[in-house]
């Protein structure tokens, strides 16, 4: 038999339960029989029926129930405390409240007061830490490229990303009863070290894309030239008249030998501000691939199988690259671009490219600095 849900102490009757009590009483059932049906005390059934017969209403009177320990002024003070330290837990706020007022208040009361005031505990939005120079350069870059129109059709955006065999994006939930927290089927294992996976490189242009390359091991400047630029990136750029190459500021990308290689090949580079992965449309590609890998029902036991699935997903994506998100960067007055992680692309990547770039929750960040 399914377990009976434990009823909280002093839990109020719902409108459905009140209507059910009245209906059963009108059907001729006794107080005890009705109480057995709705799993309530007989005195509770009597009070509901008496309220209905005497006052013709089922709602509670305003102001009924136990009084709040805090006043409206105390609630405003509590809200100011919570807004001063947004990450403080209810227990920490209760301790601060006890120190400030000398009155003890439990953590559950703190949560109820904050919920009544509209402050709900939510998952924070993660972003890359930016210094003042980072913000200034981002804004300067956005202002310089604000009026670009057809020029974006000649830009080739490139990047690396890593996909792991096991990753958890924070959205996984376990359905369990109370006391089942330590059951094996309710536990998700998390490796403390670096998990096996594949690192890939790719480039996208307007209605076109390069081959997805697998990079084994650490990528340095020499390997970047030998395994990425010479066999794939440069031929892809040469097939696009007037192409402009974009890459981030990872160390293998900005080494002297790489700059000399670009100069020898006459590759035109697009200046890119540091710590700005959110401004590149290719971040959407990695996000879509990561989401589809997470939804893929096929088991993956090795890095080779993961690479096979990743390349298959990349082949079936459709491409239409939109300009980077310059307007949000400019309107935020040098603030980091906020990231929206709620969008979920399906078969067409075009719709996801029109939204702010999601952060890589489905795969770890590259080890190379941006």
From TrEMBL:
Sorted alphabetically, which InterPro entries does this protein's record hold? Answer: Homeodomain-like_sf, IS30-like_HTH, RNaseH_sf, Tc1-like_DDE_dom, Transpos_IS630-like, Transposase_5, Transposase_Tc1-like
The Tc1-like transposase DDE domain covers: 154-306
Q: Name one GO cellular component term.
A: nucleus
- Please state every residue range assigned to the domain named Transposase Tc1-like: 75-147
Molecular-function annotations in GO: DNA binding
Which portions of the sequence form the region Disordered?
342-370
Where does the signal peptide begin and end?
A: none
Q: Which residues form the Transposase IS30-like HTH domain?
A: 11-48
Predominantly, its location class is nucleus
Any one Gene Ontology BP term: DNA transposition
Gene3D superfamilies found in the cross-reference section: Homeodomain-like, Ribonuclease H-like superfamily/Ribonuclease H
Q: Where in the cell is it found?
A: Nucleus
Q: What PANTHER family does the entry give?
A: SI:DKEY-77F5.3, TRANSPOSABLE ELEMENT-RELATED
UniProt cross-references to NCBIfam families, sorted A to Z = transpos_IS630
Q: What is this protein called?
A: Transposable element Tc1 transposase
Organism expressing this protein natively:
Stegodyphus mimosarum
Query: What lineage does UniProt assign to this protein's organism?
Result: Eukaryota, Metazoa, Ecdysozoa, Arthropoda, Chelicerata
């Amino acid at each position: 038999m399914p377990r009976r849900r434990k009823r909280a102490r002093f839990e109020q009757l719902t409108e459905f339960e009140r209507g059910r009590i009245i209906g059963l009483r009108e059907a001729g059932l006794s107080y005890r029989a009705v109480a057995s049906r709705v799993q309530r005390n007989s005195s509770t059934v009597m009070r509901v029926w008496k309220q209905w017969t005497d006052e013709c209403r089922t709602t509670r009177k305003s102001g009924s129930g136990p009084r709040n320990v805090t006043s409206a002024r105390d609630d405003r003070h509590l809200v100011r405390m919570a807004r001063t330290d947004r990450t403080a837990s209810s227990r920490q706020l209760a301790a601060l409240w006890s120190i400030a007022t000398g009155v003890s208040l439990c953590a559950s009361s703190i949560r109820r007061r904050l919920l009544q005031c509209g402050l709900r505990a939510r998952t924070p939005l993660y972003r890359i830490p930016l210094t003042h120079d980072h913000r200034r350069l981002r804004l300067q870059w956005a202002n310089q490229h604000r009026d670009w129109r057809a020029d974006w059709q000649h830009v080739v955006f490139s990047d690396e990303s890593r996909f792991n065999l096991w990753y958890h994006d924070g959205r996984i939930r376990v359905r369990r009863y109370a006391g089942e927290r330590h059951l094996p089927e309710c536990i998700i294992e998390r490796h403390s070290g670096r998990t096996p996976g594949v690192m890939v490189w790719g480039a996208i242009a307007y209605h076109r894309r390069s081959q997805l390359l697998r990079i084994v091991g650490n990528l340095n400047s020499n390997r970047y030239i030998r395994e990425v630029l010479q066999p794939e990136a440069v031929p892809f750029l040469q097939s696009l008249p007037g192409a402009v190459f974009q890459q981030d500021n990872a160390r293998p990308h900005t080494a002297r030998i790489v700059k000399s290689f670009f100069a020898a090949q006459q590759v035109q580079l697009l200046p890119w501000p540091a710590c700005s992965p959110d401004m590149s449309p290719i971040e959407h590609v990695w996000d879509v691939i990561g989401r589809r890998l997470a939804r893929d029902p096929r088991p993956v036991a090795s890095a080779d199988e993961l690479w096979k699935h990743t390349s298959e997903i990349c082949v079936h994506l459709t491409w239409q690259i939109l300009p980077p998100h310059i307007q949000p960067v400019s309107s935020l007055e040098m603030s980091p671009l906020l990231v929206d992680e709620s969008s979920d692309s399906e078969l067409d990547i075009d719709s996801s490219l029109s939204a702010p770039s999601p952060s890589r929750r489905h795969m770890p960040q590259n080890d190379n600095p941006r």
